[in-house]
Amino acid sequence: MTVGAVAVLAIVLAWPVPRLLPRLHALRHVPGPALLLWQSVSLAAVIAGLAAAPLAMLDRARDTTAVPDPTDHLGTLVLGLSVTGVMVVRLLLEAHRVGTDLRRTRRQHRELVDLLGDDGPADRPADVRVLPHPTPTAYCVPGRQHRVVITDSTMQSLPSGQLDAVLAHERAHLRYRHDLVLEFFTVLHHAVPPWLRSPGGLREVTLLIEVLADHTALRTAPPRELGRALVALAEGTHPEATLGAHGSALTRLQLLQQRRHRPGLVALVVGASVVVLLLPLVLVALVLLGV
């Protein structure tokens, strides 16, 4: 029965839950804990999915609550571990593919903006590049040799306070390595079969990352300045594999307007994250103990 619970948990966390969480709009008000919950759900689904087959083979081979001698059940052991091995290899290959593609794309784009862009104003950090373009746009290229990219129309259309808010948003992406968070979810999204994928879930995680960067930017800029900057950048786009200050502008403006401390919601979401992550570990322990 417990082995079946592990398998059911893996399916529930991998399919209906990622489709349910984007509907819980309250989570957008606490983007940090919300991202923690998303990570807990994803890791718990992986743990349960990887453990299900070996635990099923163990339960099949066991006559008592004691763990059977592996040498007496080599065929069963190999079968269970083979299923898990295929899943692990798929995850590793997808992580390698996604990571390699992202880093190559970012390197190529960084070289391009270094070639075509101008250095930012003298009072700005040296990693800022200014590109000629009529549309106000701002984004960052993550990595060891990161870049913050803005267009000349951004500098012309945004007052100093709004420009500071935009740059603070981009530096939040770089400082807290939001690109790695998004890469983690992208790998899991592509590693599972197509019928299990949740594009809405990936979009929601992307939105939460942007809202989290907005919250960091508010430490150095008032909400009005950041809100006006979001409106000014609403029509901009950013290249693949980069992170931008625009996108979902209306939703983010509404969240800025409704922003306040929500300690109860934070505690609830963090508590749920811990419970979700511990659940597959507890079930696995119960199976191993023969309960």
From TrEMBL:
The keyword Manganese does not apply. Residues 126-182 form the Peptidase M48 domain. Its cofactor is Zn(2+). The keyword Hydrolase applies. The chain crosses the membrane at residues 6-22, 34-53, 73-93, 265-289. Pfam families: Peptidase_M48. InterPro entries: Beta-lactam_resp_regulator, Peptidase_M48. Binds 1 zinc ion per subunit. GO terms for molecular function: metal ion binding; metalloendopeptidase activity. This is Peptidase M48 domain-containing protein. It comes from Luteipulveratus halotolerans.
